[in-house]
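FIELD: query
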Amino acid sequence: MSIQVLQSLLDGILMGGVYALAALGLSLIFGVLKITNFAHGAMMTVGMYVVYALASGLGFNAYLALPFAMILMFVIGFLIQRFPIHYIEHAPAHNQLLLTLGMAYILENVLLVIFTPNYKTLTVDGFEKALRIGNLTVAPAKLVAFAVVVFVTGCIYFILYRTHTGNSIRASAQNDTGAKLMGINVRNIRAIAFGLGAVCTGIAGGLLTPIMSIYPTLGESFQLKCFVIAVLGGMGNLWGALLSGLLIGVIESLSSYYLGGSWSEMLIYGIFILILFVRPTGLFGRGNRREN
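FIELD: result
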């Protein structure tokens, strides 16, 4: 295997981790609320601009700004679910789609007003020079991003499977009526779950800020990719989202190397369509039997 292929594989894994974290937030929201969140990309962009504003305006280190982005994204996610989404949870699916799509446009236009449509870049001191691992080179920002993804994923797992709040979230996802009978405040738990999903998305966006130029509608380019990852992983399956994110990152990187950047998106969506023909609930989803 050539050095160039190994380099592409490494880059794909590192970026795939960030994709996976963003898709994990989407999958978490769907798993609990059964709502497809079309504001997901816009929320990711908000996370980017929070980190950018704190780093460029107040002199924060970009990575030390992440906890502030987490807090803000949790509050935004909590409030979005607690008020507008709560009142349309049992409405037809197209009402839910239009509401979340409307929230996306509101968030994007707020960013346009505050930050203008101009591209913004952020450089982290000490991270300008690439690291060498043998014959491979690694951008320090990507390496740190992957490490943060692993840490945050572990935290989300701990919250969901080792805390009372996590047990309540999973109980509400499985049977909200039964959860209410057990004394769980399902309305608050759903808002917390949406907030946690927003945190995952915001952190993913914040980790990308030192890696690429940002602009208010950038999240739209990631939204469809997050949906692909979440569906391939099985909607609501957190580990499936993580594995699918790494897979998509590798496919994107290798296809860019072999075929060129213009073909990578086409290949990803082509593979996505083919997989859904064979496994309609995704690679790691349950109930993949097809009935004739």
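FIELD: remark
The chain has a mean pLDDT of 89.
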